[in-house]
Amino acid sequence: MKNNFFLYSTIIFLIVCSFASAQNENSATNKPNIIFILADDLAVNALSAYNPKLFNTPNIDRLANEGIKFNNCLVTNSICAPSRAVMLTGKYSHKNGLRDNRDVFNGDQQTFPKLLQQAGYTTALIGKWHLKSAPQGFDYWNIAKGQGLYYNPIFIEMGDTTRRDGYITDLITDYVFDYIEDVDKEKPFCVLYHHKSPHRNWMPNLKDLADMKTRPEPETLHDDYSGRVAAAEQDMEINNLYRSLDLKIHLQKGEVENSGGKASFDATGSWRATYNTLTPQQKKEWDEYYEPINKEFREANFSDEELFKWKYQRYINDYLLCVKSIDDNIGRLFDYLDKNNLSENTMVILSSDQGFFLGEHGWYDKRFMYEESIKIPMLIRYPKDVPANQVNDKIILNLDFAPTLLDFAGIEIPTDMQGRSFKKLMLGKDIPNWRNSMYYHYYEYPHGWHDVKRHYGIRTENFKLIHFYYDIDEWELFDLESDPHEMNNLIDDPNYSDLILKLKNELYYLQDYYGDNSVSR
After folding, report:
1. Low-confidence residues of the chain: pLDDT under 50
2. Which of 336, 482, 497, 507 has its CA 20 to 30 A from that of 239?
């Protein structure tokens, strides 16, 4: 009996050890590699996965076809640095301390890369940073200086500054490949792969200039802002684009610059300095394409309407071809992952720091709580766990990115993060009591560009209520189902008085829930 007992005990011990070993192995392999591609000012309407009528982005479409597409991914503050801070911290702007682009990010605070790093991930930041303070929470970082130049940009690699010849989207991708090549293969990795494109001043890759063509105009290109005071007072109309910096015209003697969004800004000098970063060969190829267009512009006797349409086509083509550079490099990324047997266990995410107006309402830029500005692409491919060809209409926020990535990595989500994990949604499951409304707050007025008034608001599935404040007191209500372009302000319609009261109560509840006491009611 003793021998039998010893035998049984040994067998049980070996089974337990084997099970524990398997559990440890599964725990390690269940941690996905993460590649988070963040574009700058990427509009959902620029991607054929969302809008097949304007432009073709086949490699980005693969993310949707082979993973999940979120149709209602929204930002809580539609401006570059604040949105990036929200993504890193999982906290609203009033909590993470970065409300507008003048602020400096406090890198000492908790971020999801730091938590991943503490849990055994190797972490890297490559590309655009734009938060002014030095990156923290990364084993390796290599960031573009300032906003980054499209051609021959300056990079700051772990404190050392170098200039690289080439096009920035290609170079950032090269750096990502170099990092993954050298990473410790015994650990999962997370790479924040952040593009400059398609940020203003929209300089396409030379190889793509031949793809210029006439693009369709948005339905609201000629909006007159009836009934929307704040919309009428902005300064971000396509008609005001700088002739030099934005439209790529070398101004000659006697030619006058536009105001372009900030009268004190030397757009002509900025364009001259930007153009002079091109090599002689790059200048030659650039001018061979743009100078005939500029000559035609000078010689044309445009009416005001014709000039406006010309500016729109100049803008939209430059913007979309910057998007093409991202799409091309995502194709390169897919090829790299396949070649190195990394596709199955690598989560690839594409999103943007905010949306962007592509001529809707006659505008470029972002900032407003209108759909084109607050809605961002969110496409995720993770073959190991996330079923393909999924489309999800739930309201998710950039606030949720940090909790979701921590959840996939098996890391406990800190209780002070204000976002929620949408991991189950990605797995094709429902999440009980998921949000049915979101809170928004934009702060950058009067100190920033474009004169967009400060405002906050609430968006539900079908309605949006916005309050513009500071030196104005205006409310707007939109029925997103019957008026998806937000042209008809219903705030004074007595048929909506009960709804307005209900939305205001929910808005104030969300302000209290998220701890935003920065405005009086």
Report:
1. 1-2, 5-28
2. 482
